[in-house]
Amino acid sequence: MTNPFDLSGRTALVTGANTGIGQAIAVALAQAGADVAVAGRTPPDETRAMVEATGRRFVAISADFTSIEPIPHIMEEAIAGLGRVDILVNNAGIIRRADSVDFTEDDWDDVMTVNLKAPFFLCQAFGRHVIGRQSAEPDAKGKIINIASMLSFQGGIRVPSYTASKSGIAGITKLLACEWAGKGINVNAIAPGYVETNNTSALRADEKRSAEILARIPAGRWSQSSDLGGPAVFLASDASDYVHGTILPVDGGWLAR
Ligand code: NAP
Questions:
Q1: DSSP structural state of residue 66
Q2: CA dist., res. 25 & res. 14, Å (int)
Q3: Which one of the listed residues 58, 65, 120, 162 is annotated catalytic?
Q4: Residues 169, 115: contact at Cβ < 8 Å?
Q5: Is the pTM of this model over 0.90?
Q6: Nearest to residue 231, comparing CAs of 219, 244, 240, 223?
Q7: b/e for 216-232, b at 16 or more Cβ within 10 A?
Q8: Which of 15, 21, 42 maximizes ligand 1 atoms within 8 Å of its Cβ, making it the mutation to test the pocket?
Q9: 194 is catalytic
Q10: Tens digit of each residue's pLDDT (9 = 90 or more) over 68-104
Q11: How many CA atoms lie within 13 A of 69 on its CB side?
Q12: Could you give the residue ranges of the DSSP H alpha helices within 62-199?
């Protein structure tokens, strides 16, 4: 019997994969059999070693998502390195914390560009790539996994542009699923709970807030980046072929409480 989670022969592009959740997803996809390209601004040396240790191919692409200018060359380099791209993981993201009464235009624009504008235009480039291949290969398929957040569902505090961007990513995930589900492209998102990464270092340094968060997590622990690997493999694989437009919480039960 074939394994519906097997990614052998598939190729993936993951953004922001030098560390944290992106690194864990890149490694999980490689462990499931995919060759991996990563795009980001810090050299992904550790991720390269981890992916190559699985025996899969690895391509590093330099890109800064403070604008969408690098997007055409990212797709070109990924296709040149891996032949084609079957799976796109929009993971790169930033957060800025300040009370809403003090929040600056720069903190709004920077977060919205990296977290929402760049992912949309990467989805567009990927969609054009997959749909463009279908004239020669009618069975060509694509899988998009956007990284959402608990703040795709909730308001949060002191992170207005982050909440707007992650609510927006949930919206475009559903919109693109409606446009592309009939074209062989699955568009879904993973909404991590509270994960121990650079993104949450300020939160974890605040003992009171950190304890309040932990007390609300039914699983009784913060998430590790590796908790996101299995769900990403599922959404990247044939096992999820009829899953479209879902925002999958991977949150230790946070939203259930
Ligand atoms: P992280 O460790 O800070 O990783 C963020 C990644 O995005 C890094 O690779 C970072 O590269 C990259 N990045 C940031 N700005 C970039 C830019 N301008 N151009 C290119 N790459 C850029 O945080 P993480 O927690 O793994 O976050 C990954 C994703 O998960 C983000 O979308 C985040 O919003 C989301 N998320 C995180 C949590 C959590 O609890 N940690 C919860 C929900 C959702 P550098 O290392 O070069 O900065």
A1: T
A2: 8
A3: 162
A4: yes
A5: yes
A6: 240
A7: ebeeeebbebebbbebb
A8: 21
A9: no
A10: 999 999 999 999 999 999 999 999 999 999 999 999 9
A11: 4
A12: 71-82, 105-112, 118-133, 160-180
